[in-house]
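ENTRY TYPE: paired fold submission
RECORD: A
CONTENT: sequence, then structure tokens
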Amino acid sequence: MESKTDRTEPTAPPSAASAAAISAVLGDDDLLREILLRLGFPTTLIRAAAVSKRWLRHASDPTFLRRFRTRHPPALLGFYIRELGARGPRFVPVSQAPELATATRRASAAEGRFFISDCRNGRLLVMDFDPTACRHAVLSPLHPARGKVVLPPAPKQSLIWFFLTENGGGYDGAVAVLMLPIGTTKTKVQVDLLTSGSGVWVAHRTVVIDLPETLPPIAYTLPPVRGKIYSLTKSGHILGLDMTAAKSSLIQRPDKGICSASGSLRRPGATQMTGCWCMTKFVCMRRGIVLRMLW
């Protein structure tokens, strides 16, 4: 007895009317640009540009690319999660889209014993737990060819914080905030901005400011935001530093501000999601888990 096999009927070619409609749409340069503009991922745009020289011309036009970047700003790729007691962080993507598979794989490859202290534009500022010493370094998980860039040794000061530069400053750029109490009463403070470059820290000093009391312990320092750095003190003040104007200020924390138990400054009305409080600087802490977001 002969077994019957299923036969797949050939797909009928599109009708002349459908072909004409498709040609009318894709043959119109204005409509084609609008279609390309609405592609969800840059990787999809690259594949579309390979269709023909005409599509490549539209996809590579500087004006079109500016519109594409405006419409598709960098999105959240995922989280680095470090559980207390774990050897190092692990990466958890927020999307399983095939277009993001390469970026997700590279971000997941950032392994090692380190603590993430800042994250900006796909770069990580980490404290590398080397067997001989703790070093600060910049990692670029999405660009593995850049490798690990070890920052210069930190100045021998206790009041110092490290961050990635706001505009990149080169993929290995970093900035440090150094506070120097002045006088025996320590009611004045001088704040130094240190930028990394050529293997050394370059200092840019700000004005000396008077404090209403002896310099109180700093609870938390936020990374640069629009050229400014803010530190929350345990005495209820915010120390502000204008990086562009090289000026600093000390103001009373608004009553609506919230200081969490860990000393970090949280935005009023911060949203609680999946058991974690989303805080300024995109750090979530709860139930012994620390998360950092990669954009």
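RECORD: B
CONTENT: sequence, then structure tokens
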Amino acid sequence: MKAAIEEWRHWLEGSTHPFQVITDHKNLEYIKSAKRLNPHQAHWSLFFTRFQFTVTYRPGSKNSKADALSRRHDRPLTDHQPESILPPSIIIAPDTLDLMDEIQREQRNEPAPQGCPANKQYVPSRLRLRVMQWVHTSLCSGHPGISHTLHLTQNSFWWPAMVKDVTNYVKSCFVCAQSKTPKELPSGLLQPLPIPQRPWSHLSVDFVTDLPPSDGFTPILVIIDCFSKACRLIPLKGLPTAMDTAQAMFHNVFRIYGIPEDIVSERGTQFTSQVWKAFCKQLDINVSLTSGYHPQSNGQVERLNQEIGRYLRSYCGREQHRWSEFLPWAEYAQKAFIHWSYTVPMRARIPTPHVPVVWRTITSTCCRRLDSP
């Protein structure tokens, strides 16, 4: 409106009769009576005082003359959808189509070649990128590495040169490049910890701190079973005391998996206090503290902390206050991983409870009394 009045200022300024401005923008009716204006609007209001006019609202359906003049007539109207300027390979958006149904429809044009396993779904060439993207970026997988992504893909799908395609896809994943950290080990001779003989008998414990608040939670208590590599991720309202740590361990680990034999932890105040030592002594748990300023002594839980950070950065990088919502998914993804350094049978997930000394003494005493005449 201001541009039009400026264009015909030599006709409108100084007119003895007010002219009428017809617009489909209803808010412009109050432009001359508005009291709270920003600097631009105040400058325009001062300009409008030089003219006598009234603003009349007319819906766009009835304002056909001005609407027709505002359209470009040099471009023909077309019914087809315009083509995207971005190649499909870099477009990441939710797919509303059922992937399996689309694979089966595409197989009519590209049937499975000879040598395709009978228990695998052949993926035509046009849909292979979508399958790899779906497997790699799913919440249940958590942007894993090449080996894990290949294993998850081979569970249900097959196509020639699958290993090469999956390797190239994971190496070119932009989210992985941003969120993952280097895994090179430091030089030097490492002294290994004792090898556990059953699940949940030897635990490694640590805290992940300095996180943004998420539903009132700030740190994470990270617990990993050194035998099966299963983990528990417990969000906490704040950095706990020794008593709070003992209660969290009992309610989230001991109550479910049994009492362990050994717990490896850093030298924080929670694990060096007399409360923690008395708690572990009462349950016949050995307390193992790492070397000072040497986190590699507790390497399993430190490595798990890196994976947790990578997972949370992958899914809530721009919404960091939502990390507590994704924490259960991170725990599920870590438990679903296959650790290639050893074979984990299904029975490794089923714990054999550790019986403290006091209960072993009571049991042996009762057995002797039953055996005595």
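NOTES ON RECORD B: The chain has a mean pLDDT of 81. The domain at 202-349 is CATH 3.30.420.10 (Nucleotidyltransferase; domain 5).
STATUS: closed
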